[in-house]
Amino acid sequence: MEKEKVLEIEIKKINNEYSVFYPTKLNIKELEKAGYTVTEFDVLDEVKKPVINFYFNNKNDFTILLNNTSLNVPFIIENIYIEELKKIVDEYNKKYGIHKIWRYFIKKL
Description:
Layout: E1 3-4, E2 7-13, E3 18-26, H1 28-31, E4 37-41, E5 46-54, E6 62-65, E7 75-78, H2 82-96, E8 98-99, H3 101-108
Antiparallel strand pairs: 1-8, 2-3, 3-7, 4-5, 5-6
């Protein structure tokens, strides 16, 4: 059954070593089901916020906050990790993507 993507990114090559990627779509409600949070310490309190973490190595680890302010925020990544990044995004969409039920029923008819 086909699924609607919950995470989309755009990648632009900067040079032979680096590219920039940024989230163009975040379905916050569905991605929060992954259960990842980060604790931010404020002056008066600590706040837990939902995030997506990408781990490649210490230099190329990313944390994307699951809120609308994260849309179109660029992250620099080494080109050698681009394919791995694409695989991770695909896995998020396979695992947390929203089933397109209406298309499923139309195909059944």
